[in-house]
Amino acid sequence: MLDNSDRRLLASIQQGLPLCSRPYAEIGQRLGLPETEVINRLSALNQQGLIKRMGVIVKHRSLGYQANAMVVWNIPDAEVTTVGQQMSTFPFVNLCYQRPRHPDWPYNLYCMIHGKDRETVLTQLEQLTQTLNLTHIAKTVLFSRRCFKQQGARYRLTHQES
Amino acid sequence: MTELVLTDLHKRLLNDFQRDFPLSERPYQAIAEQLGVSESTVLSALTELSQQQLISRVGPIIRPNHIGVSTLAAIAVPQAELETVANTISRYPEINHNYEREHELNLWFVVIADNNEQLAAVIASIEAETGYPVLQFPLLHDFYIDLGFNLDWQHVG
Fold first, then answer.
1. Which of A74, A134, B38, B79 is the residue whose CA sits 20 to 30 A from B103?
2. Domain named Siroheme decarboxylase NirL-like HTH: which ranges (chain A) (predicted)?
């Protein structure tokens, strides 16, 4: 699993790679690691799936994708894994997570759909619902209104040496 | 700030390089070669996109809950108090996003911490400071394979 250098490395690049000719060398300098070790460690983390993807992270709101729906579903527990896997393959689904139910909150599967406008998002949701035969399943659609804060993950790793 | 007019280069950088970022000594040079431009052109275009808030960064999406812990959380706040409560919550450095959503449960945020004790302490502090109970929805299973966000240029602008 992750050793201390991996954790420091991930913490140091979670806000982005430097925009310079040799970004891995620069990160290495900050951490006291050779450039090749930075590259090898990141390649390993990538292969292990701890890095889900690496590249340009776009801000969909600024790019015109203003409608953002979080759809929550009450899927029978025995089916949630299958349905979750199927749901995540739709190109317009941007996240798909199982989460715990609460009293008065029976929903256990969450997916996110980002679109240009509500109509588009609702049409995509209808397509998803029909294709996966989920018309009889209770769900709620929560469109976002204001964004009060949005930033990349910021682990502080306070118990690590800086 | 004048608005950036997106060139073909900007568009390709935005859409085609969301994953498989080169893990080689000069990654921006590798991208430049694919695009038939110079490394410095790629670097300035990415800097422009970043300054214009069209990208948040060039970097990794880290699988949740492998370094540190996190949870989605929500509270129900009367409309009149929403902005004040939202700003109170956003001030915590452990909050990494915070949205109003159309529901009685109307404020949704993600808390990130180094460990469970710190996470619990932040939630308790938010409850004490706002006076509202916080519902927690920690991730149980991640089904999503993140291939990036496919941009349709008719939608952009």
1. A134
2. 6-51
